[in-house]
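>> received
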Amino acid sequence: MITSSSPPPPHPISDESRLKLTMAPRRACVVVVAALVALLCAAAVSEAADAPPPNLPPRSQVIHPGRYKRDQQLACDDPKDKKKPCVAKCDKRCPNECIVLCPGCKTYCMCDFYPGVSCGDPRFTGGDGNNFYFHGKKDQDFCIVSDADLHINAHFIGKSNPTMSRDFTWIQALGIRFADHRLYMGAKKTAKWNNDVDRLELAFDGAPIDIPTEAGAVWESTAVPGLTVTRTASTNGIRVQLREVFDIMAKVVPITEEDSRIHNYGVTEDDSLAHFDLGFKFFSLTDNVHGVLGQTYRTDYVNKLSVSSKMPIMGGAPKFVSSDIFATDCAVARFGAHHAGISMVTARAY
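>> returned
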């Protein structure tokens, strides 16, 4: 699903605009399967299935069960095998949209094909390729990536469960800092979910970002060449890119009544807990990077989580706490300063 490749060479910060960030190359970058990234940006909404762009594997299609009716399915037929067509249905993790690979009817959630945060309860794919959970705490901000020239905080929302020692949490917003700029992307609080209504909130340096609600619509920064926001769907899906720095996929999704019932999330009628499914790609992070996700990109990072566990959990939440969505005051912050390297060891969480 993912591969590694060498990052592009670093570029100096421009005295004129500081539009490119200098980052020493790390041993490898997690790279997305290019064909599926193309799908996210180009797929058009249809009731049954979307025709794949040329770069996709043959007969790859997208279905949107939650857009019209929950039980929408897709039949895959291989005329060569003379067998009865199989029927594909989206996984419960992504009931509103998924990729179907025909023949075979294998389905995937969109976020399965992008490294970084995955579907649902904050699950990360680290720079070392291993998945782990970080639960954080509801109504708090945590630094997930902190480097000399890039800092990303995530705001967590959630529900408390008196029978558990932790909150159920999801990422509701990101605060991204680079050079002297601040980029905000968030999911608006939503009572009754309707996928046809856009629940994205975007702002750059305090000014709202307005993008037409149509797939493929693009906003380009006039202050920062190379910074773009592209809608991957008419509503609730975007791709945010800063050339040679980061590439972020984000989709606003709710917690469904069924998920709440199965997992005892406690969703109420006044809040569907709209949150992000996210994916990250970074270019040329330095070897001093830190943060929940960032630390896993270091060459001296040692993963001592139980990777064979069904739910390996990263602890140490207090050192990642930030005072607000744009603060760079978490204990492991690296933004705007150059620190001596330290050995990275992740302790097992119990």
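>> Confidence is low (pLDDT under 50) at residues 1-56, 339-350.
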